[in-house]
């Protein structure tokens, strides 16, 4: 993908200097049944189709920009996984209402980490490089598949994916490449944990 490992590590080091929570905060939230919400256009329709019996007792994990669509639907995610390129105002609102924010540091978001993390509480830090101190690497690559890998790392054995569209032709070339990786990584994960998709149509 052409990303700089050095820049990723610099961003993670900056994040590690901030007031971060230990990952054990996630253990108290994640149960065995999880809903992961991606930010595809179809998410709104998926939320409308979701049977209340399917959501009862499940932990809701939001991938970055999906947070805005959840708030619009009157839902507060339990956990937000974000590299802070979504609507930060909505992430801050959900955080104030109790959502834990898992902030991912990479080379392209150093300025966002510097500007926004101090305004958040209950923040867990992650990196796609070597983990250290209180900055973790639970696996995954995009915000969406990182949600599922993190949930698996903390014991979830049933994950329902909403708002995922790996064949979205309206996104940029780089985003399509990322979606292909997300699809591949989730297919690997589905070999060790029960991962279910809500259909795009």
Q: What features would you describe in this structure?
A:
This protein has 201 residues and is an alpha/beta fold. The chain has a single domain, classed as Rossmann fold, CATH 3.40.50.10240. Helix content is 39%, strand content 18%. It contains nine helices and eight strands. Strands 6-5-4-3-2-1-7-8 form an eight-stranded parallel sheet, sandwiched between helices. α6 links the parallel β3 and β4. α8 runs parallel beside α9. The longest helix has 17 residues. The chain is globular and about 40 Å long. The model has no long low-confidence stretch (mean pLDDT 91).
Silhouette: globular
Number of domains: 1
Q: Based on DSSP secondary structure assignment, what is the total number of beta strands?
A: 8
Q: What would the CATH topology be? A: Rossmann fold
CATH superfamily: Thiamin pyrophosphokinase, catalytic domain
Q: Report how far the terminal alpha carbons are from each other.
A: 30 Å
SS field, number of helical segments? 9
CATH architecture: 3-Layer(aba) Sandwich
Spatial strand order of the main sheet: 6-5-4-3-2-1-7-8
Low-confidence stretches: none
- How confident overall, as mean pLDDT? 91
CATH top level is Alpha Beta
Radius of gyration: 16 Å
SS-based class: alpha/beta
What's the main sheet like?
8 strands, parallel
